[in-house]
């Protein structure tokens, strides 16, 4: 049958499985089934897919042709453009790549659309059978990926909980509540009683709510009031600068921020008021980003054990690949408080 023209072929690029699926009016998985498991399809569907393959000159990848006989030794990881410059995710990706390399695997990066997790890139890779499993990050409420991969029997592990009630699959996460609880303990030991929390809007981020819960739990344990001491901001320095103002006006002698970015906003507002972090108001961040040691004064922050997270993600994923029916494993790792100059004893007379 003569090959019809298509934009990709005209430009000299290879025809993709997704393009074939679009031409045939089916999903990428259906095209994959036509190549590897044709008996699963109805005859008319199989004929339509094969006709599209012939017309477009599609050549299945070697990985697709040998899926049942060998492993690709590749682990897929989708990166969202808005998060690609995050110091936390940069460090996690480095740790993940190193752990995969030690296990004889490679991380295959692919672009994931901004605006939240989407399935397009995952379906494309699965259709071409170029990965043995996936590592997911940014696992917020409403994330469709875990359920979608589970229904297809695809191994995956999440860096982060699902936050939506029902837990699916294996995951590794950092116990943010334990971290902010430890930050409150540190500040109480220094005489602080008016300890505020600057986080993200309730319900927007599971990790943000988790960090707020640790602060609330510790404050209740010490009999300290949280009324009027919680501020909300997007993860932006200027927005945090404005959000912390009413907390300082209310007499807070210490602020625990849900991220180092929010803590930086606290620094800026304190400087505008002629105050100094540590000397006048103690500030604690979260993530222990590279900026924490460069700020003046240096920032006390909660460090996530990202190297351990990377190792455990690879271990859990390879275990899932080896034993698909094993019970799920979930790990909650403790962050550590790195004390620097931004926390000090409460100002005299301000403890109560």
TrEMBL record:
<dbReference type="InterPro" id="IPR046335">
    <property type="entry name" value="LacI/GalR-like_sensor"/>
</dbReference>
<dbReference type="InterPro" id="IPR000843">
    <property type="entry name" value="HTH_LacI"/>
</dbReference>
<keyword id="KW-0805">Transcription regulation</keyword>
<feature type="domain" description="HTH lacI-type">
    <location>
        <begin position="15"/>
        <end position="69"/>
    </location>
</feature>
<dbReference type="InterPro" id="IPR028082">
    <property type="entry name" value="Peripla_BP_I"/>
</dbReference>
<protein>
    <submittedName>
        <fullName>LacI family transcriptional regulator</fullName>
    </submittedName>
</protein>
<keyword id="KW-0804">Transcription</keyword>
<dbReference type="InterPro" id="IPR010982">
    <property type="entry name" value="Lambda_DNA-bd_dom_sf"/>
</dbReference>
<dbReference type="Pfam" id="PF13377">
    <property type="entry name" value="Peripla_BP_3"/>
</dbReference>
<dbReference type="Pfam" id="PF00356">
    <property type="entry name" value="LacI"/>
</dbReference>
<keyword id="KW-0238">DNA-binding</keyword>
